């Protein structure tokens, strides 16, 4: 009887040991990991297509033809005026010490003429004369202003030149004009009495172009 009890207890203890091992193994096993669920895929946004705008070519600016500048003419005014002035200073009826108004050279040619250069050359030719006292530029500009003319105004006519001469107290007026072809203009000079408008001397000459 004792042997049965002992055998029963032995079997029972072995069973308990085995059941404890099974429980321990079950507790030590990690819980099964559930597989990760894939994230729901978002539909890609639909971008409306933009139609391509054709590139417009830049407008072509037409090239304008270059207008050639007219050739500037130069003249030998001194060679024309020097002998004419020498003749005028010896003219009959000219009183030494008289006041002379030198009018601007008037262009009567068929083209553009640097008449201002001719006027300066004429005044230079008379600068050192011992016969006339010349009306200076300041007096002439003031007389023009009093008559309502600009300082650059060419008197242009004999009557206007005589009117200016009377305003400045001159006794003589030298009226000069260039005529004919602008390539080879002819110059005419007239010395007039302011009081009567009489022409007491006149002369002519040609002006040559220089290179």
Automatic annotation (TrEMBL):
<feature type="region of interest" description="Disordered">
    <location>
        <begin position="29"/>
        <end position="68"/>
    </location>
</feature>
<keyword id="KW-0472">Membrane</keyword>
<dbReference type="GO" id="GO:0008360">
    <property type="term" value="P:regulation of cell shape"/>
</dbReference>
<keyword id="KW-0998">Cell outer membrane</keyword>
<keyword id="KW-0564">Palmitate</keyword>
<dbReference type="InterPro" id="IPR014094">
    <property type="entry name" value="LpoB"/>
</dbReference>
<keyword id="KW-0133">Cell shape</keyword>
<keyword id="KW-0732">Signal</keyword>
<comment type="function">
    <text>Regulator of peptidoglycan synthesis that is essential for the function of penicillin-binding protein 1B (PBP1b).</text>
</comment>
<keyword id="KW-0449">Lipoprotein</keyword>
<comment type="subunit">
    <text>Interacts with PBP1b.</text>
</comment>
<dbReference type="GO" id="GO:0030234">
    <property type="term" value="F:enzyme regulator activity"/>
</dbReference>
<feature type="compositionally biased region" description="Pro residues">
    <location>
        <begin position="54"/>
        <end position="68"/>
    </location>
</feature>
<feature type="compositionally biased region" description="Pro residues">
    <location>
        <begin position="32"/>
        <end position="48"/>
    </location>
</feature>
<feature type="signal peptide">
    <location>
        <begin position="1"/>
        <end position="24"/>
    </location>
</feature>
<dbReference type="GO" id="GO:0009252">
    <property type="term" value="P:peptidoglycan biosynthetic process"/>
</dbReference>
<dbReference type="GO" id="GO:0031241">
    <property type="term" value="C:periplasmic side of cell outer membrane"/>
</dbReference>
<dbReference type="Pfam" id="PF13036">
    <property type="entry name" value="LpoB"/>
</dbReference>
<keyword id="KW-0573">Peptidoglycan synthesis</keyword>
<protein>
    <recommendedName>
        <fullName>Penicillin-binding protein activator LpoB</fullName>
    </recommendedName>
</protein>
<comment type="similarity">
    <text>Belongs to the LpoB family.</text>
</comment>
